[in-house]
Automatic annotation (TrEMBL):
It comes from the Eukaryota. PANTHER family: DUF4371 DOMAIN-CONTAINING PROTEIN, PTHR45749. InterPro entries: HATC_C_dom (IPR008906). Residues 189-244 form the HAT C-terminal dimerisation domain. Pfam families: Dimer_Tnp_hAT. This is HAT C-terminal dimerisation domain-containing protein. It comes from Perkinsus olseni (Perkinsus atlanticus). GO terms for molecular function: protein dimerization activity.
Length: 257
């Protein structure tokens, strides 16, 4: 027979008392509905082909689905009442103890601002010259990218690159676009676009507030962060961006040095 301490016994009694209330039944159903919606989006965000543009669309859809829970409130209450009756629990909910919060839009601000800096290049098949030039002048000068050359390259890309070949689910996939440029030997001709692609692809998909906390990112961080300094992470990002220079290096000579 297991002997519990007084503190453990009191904790167990408190937990049992809570889960014998209608509030516990209701909140279990509510969180199940909410977390299932979040889990569906989280699984899609962990796919390799997902970009920040896809992420913003998924998060906007998630926000709408979560807000729909307000319309499903009474339905959840009815279902909780049926379960409570089966469990012989008094179906009495303290409405003041449960509130719906309206802060979803605030969580999306950071990731949306990042996506807006890059969304014009990925829509180059459907935007006009003036919009391209305006976006280039507004966003890319500070990143070491020649905005005028990038605008010209995007205009040429509209005519010379097959949109279907670089698309996933109807939207441009930056990784496919970069692979096509490299496969066809066009990285030199599209130098600014190539640089932009490498910058963009070094930014991982994160949560709505631009934190990197989805399960795949957490796994990588937890496994390697303890032995990987910030300086090394910055170096790896630089190697990814300056891919041509990295490919020209002799790593054997570097290791011997």
């Amino acid at each position: 027979m297991v002997r519990l301490t007084g503190e453990a016994l009191r904790t167990g009694e408190s937990v049992l008392a809570y889960f014998s209330t209608f509030e516990a039944v209701f909140m279990t159903l509510f969180w199940h509905e909410l977390l299932m919606k979040i889990n569906d989006v989280s699984l899609k965000l962990q796919q390799k082909v997902v970009t920040l543009s896809n992420e913003v669309s998924l998060l906007v859809g998630l926000g709408e689905r979560v807000r729909e829970l307000k319309q499903e409130w009474q339905m959840i209450c009815r279902r909780a009442g049926e379960i409570a009756n089966d469990l012989e629990i008094n179906a009495d909910l303290d409405s003041a103890s449960i509130r719906m919060h309206r802060r979803l839009n605030e969580r999306f601000v950071a990731i949306r601002s990042i996506e807006q800096r890059f969304n014009v290049p990925w829509r180059f098949g459907s935007v006009g010259v003036s919009e391209i030039e305006q976006a280039m002048a507004s966003h890319y000068g500070q990143d070491g990218i020649n905005a005028r050359e990038l605008a010209t390259e995007l205009q040429v890309a509209q005519e010379g690159i097959d949109g279907e070949e670089i698309s996933v689910d109807g939207s441009t996939c930056p990784l496919r676009l970069l692979n096509v440029l490299k496969r066809d030997g066009l990285c030199g001709a599209f130098s600014q676009l190539t640089l932009l692609l490498r910058l963009y692809l070094s930014i991982p998909v994160g949560v709505a507030s631009a934190e990197r906390a989805f399960s795949r990112m957490s796994f990588i961080k937890n496994k390697f962060r303890s032995t990987t300094s910030q300086e090394r992470l910055n170096g790896l990002s630089l190697i990814a961006i300056e891919n041509d220079v990295a490919n020209s290096l002799s790593y054997g000579d570097l290791l011997r040095d």
